[in-house]
Structures are given as structure tokens and as C-alpha cells.
What does this fold into?
Amino acid sequence: MSTADEFAEDQTRAAALIDLDAAASTELAGVLKVGGEVDLLTTPLLKTGIEEQLARSRPLLVIDLTGVSFLGSSGLAALVEAREAAQDKGTALRLVAGNRSVFRPLATTGLSTLFDLRETLEEALAAPI
It folds into this structure.
């Protein structure tokens, strides 16, 4: 199997493990709903989704992690990178981290203090920017 075939196979596997949905975005807020596993294999897809939302230059980006069943260290690193990129663009970033599989890794690594965390998407969108 060639390297290109292996890469394509990895991309197919990654796409089956993570779900990204930006359909809830508005003119004022980008919303990226994330579901499934965020690990070394799927983090590049998450990064691409975040970059696409930040490129639209809205005042707020909400990353809804409610549907995430696993958040690994590469996913945590991607969220820190997203925070830095959002700050550079003047975009407020909020994470919806209302489940244990997301909140626990953020809390145990001390990263929960870096983010504006909300329990629900509705709360994240309603809070003043």
C-alpha cells in the first residue's frame, strides 16, 4: 500500500470517528458542534473546522463539545491553539463543556481556567460578548 493510500485510509477512519457540524452558525456567531472522539487521528479535522469558522471573522466562536465522548491531549492542544488564534483575530471563544468526558480533561490539566466554559449551547450564545 502506498503512502497516499495509507493517508486516504486514515482520513476515512478519522471522518468515521468525529462529527463536525457548523449548521447552527449565525452572522454574529460561528458554531462548531463536535461529536465523537477527539484524538490524534481526528484532531486535524477539528483544527480544519475551527480554522474555517475563524476565517469567517465573526465576533464569537462557540465550539460545542457536548457530543464528544473522548478528548485526548491532541484535542486539548487544538483547543489551546484555537484560543490563541481567536485572540489574534479579536474573536471571543466559548466552549460548551457540559459533559464529563470534556470537562474532566480540561479540569485535570488546568486548562479549564483558560476558557470561557458554558454548560449549554444556548447559554454560550446568549451570554454577552
Summary: Helices lie at 3-17, 43-55, 73-89, 100-108, 121-126. DSSP finds five helices and five strands in the chain.
